[in-house]
Automatic annotation (TrEMBL):
GO terms for molecular function: arylamine N-acetyltransferase activity. It comes from the Eukaryota. Its EC number is 2.3.1.5. It is an enzyme of class 2 (transferase). It comes from Holothuria leucospilota (Black long sea cucumber). Belongs to the arylamine N-acetyltransferase family. Gene3D superfamilies: 3.30.2140.20. This is arylamine N-acetyltransferase.
Amino acid sequence: MNVCRSFIGSNRASNGRLKVLQYHLQNVSHARPTSMLNFRPGGYSNTNVTFMNMRASSTGTVLDLLVNHLPQEEVEVTYPLTVKEAFSFIEDVLKLPNPQSLLREDRHAFLNLLAKQMNYAVPFSNIVLVGKPFGQRVAPSLEECKEEVVACRGGSCFIINTFNKILLDLLGYKTRFTTGKNPYHKVMGTHTGLVVQDLRYSGSEDLLEVGTRRPLFEAIPLDFGEESPEYAFGHVVSKFFRSEDGLVHWCKELDRNTKAQEAVIERGNKRWEVQLIYDLDLTVPLSLMVACHGLIWPNADIVPEVHGDAVVSGYSGKQFVVIKGKQVSVVREDFSKENYTAESKEHLINIYQKYFPQFSVAMVERAIENTISKW
């Protein structure tokens, strides 16, 4: 078992800049809007857009919710994963033979291989959540979170990235949680991010993401300046930008013919759509992540898109498949694309069984019944 203990107001960063989110929340007296458009030349293309970070909510409602309900004393949290179970998952589920040998030979290469296999095996999904009616939706227990990952049904970024953090800790890596959000959420904290420390050298930090809707097959070095190199994984080309306030923006390259989006960064002749925004100065203990997920994931006011259409996004073999409501998108291994609409409930169930058979027919039926009212 992996036991994680958090302390109110503790500062685990040697440079004094990292804060425990719990301490940060306790000291927020009010919420104020802050523009995140203060990039150096070539920033967001739509300068009328104002995003909000944790220190900047338009209403303060979410902050009040978190401050009033998060644990206010030392909390001990046990994640139900053992070393034996970790290696069994790597060998039996991720299909990586002899992980101990690979780990000894090259820890960095093994980490990237593990991340790639996690991307292929575990999708982002909300099927279990929306399979329950409104009013009955609650965040799963840590035992249930583990079961969803091991069964390759995945779930939220919290479910997947928390499992991955504990797995890596058991393998001897040094990791920490950080926090983020998508660009349209009002407050920071709706995304669970993971940073691997001391991987390339003492003090280095690398972002590792296996719990999102887009492929990122390797640990991304965070010691870049204003811009990272470009990374091509699967059908997505990613790039990271650091704004003057220190927030890091994960972006994907847009086709030049794609209709302009609000959260777009332009550099030269390329356009980059913001996918996630990180406040890497914040270190979040497991107990606080559990508490935040318990409040945020079931709350349709905070993450309304999660409570809308039933969604599964991830790999089926070598194809990247997104099922959202009745809409189906398939990106084949040669990057050719196919988009179509399910014609009936039975058709949609068959599509799920074709691409994501790890979700039982009963699970899919419940999700469809709660999210699609007519055909």
